[in-house]
User: What shape does this take?
Amino acid sequence: QMCIRVRVNAVRRCDHVRIFEAMVVEDLLRDDQGRVSGALVFNTRTGQRERMTATETVLATGGLGGLFAVTTNPVAAQGHGLAFAARAGAVIRDPEFVQFHPTALDTGLDPAPLATEALRGAGARLVNNDRRPFMADYHADGDLAPRDIVARSVETEIQAGRGAFLDASAAIGEAFPDTFPTVFAACQRTHIDPRTDLIPVAPAAHYHMGGIETGLEGQSSIEGLWAVGEVASTGVHGANRLASNSLLEAVVFAGRLAHALLGSERVAPQQALAPEDRLSVRPAPAPRSVMKRLRRAMSAGCALNRSEASLKETLDCLDALEHEQALTSGLKSSLFTSRMIVRAALARAESRGAHCRSDFPSLDGRARHSRLQETPSPLSEVSC
Assistant: This one.
């Protein structure tokens, strides 16, 4: 939060930065040669679509945890930036690699607050309904096993009906409010006293290692489009992100991108055409009830433990949602990104990092990237 405040204050001090609020990006604008020339946006104050043309367009739209039933991300983080870029023809790399935090508070809050892994570092234990520690059953390092292994172990205990909880009563106890004030406050909101009570936990979609393929300066595979942060795939994270590498990546690559843009020649956009299939759908977010079904389907078949059968069931559900529902612009993007994740997971017939296939539990021996590239959507003039 402090980092966000610092950045917001810095932006507000810049007289060359214009901030547009109450605007929702719906898609990218392109010219007839495929170069990105800005964004199609919906102005929620006027109720009208508008064109925002640009010589260079940077996507910094964050992650996609909101596509899963339990997430630590803002629920609106549904990977729309990936859909925009893919529909414009950009290469999307490694969309199947979604990291799940092993210990989000399982108290019904959406998004789910984190019970930081530092709790286990301080001696808290993962236990089941009977208060029996269970991580030794799954890994020699017990509670300090790698994040993906802990997450799958917690999921296994929950699915088996034994539940999963953090027990910090002995290791932290009365020191909890001072040592972990953020977690303590989150527990208090749901009437849990972590000094004495077990803390119910569950894995939650946390970070996306894949994204829009970029070079080291943030340039995507198509002219006029750049990406930075979680929406980008720079190659830094591999198949299983190390904690806090994301902050380092955002700072370093944002700086590199800014310097690259300062030194680049500006190409004035010749056209600003919108995807014609975007203009035919209502500019609105996905209905909450529909997103609930989508999120449940993604968590059931394309989350911590995947198989060919579960992934195909997920695709069937996504297809059914598209055919049953009146598409909105938000739902269209959420479905598009969900499909990319599932398709890439089906194609990766191995288990690697955060991607676990029960029908292919081993590495295939050859590290490789997934690359998806869609045929760009047909374009149309847009009257705004």
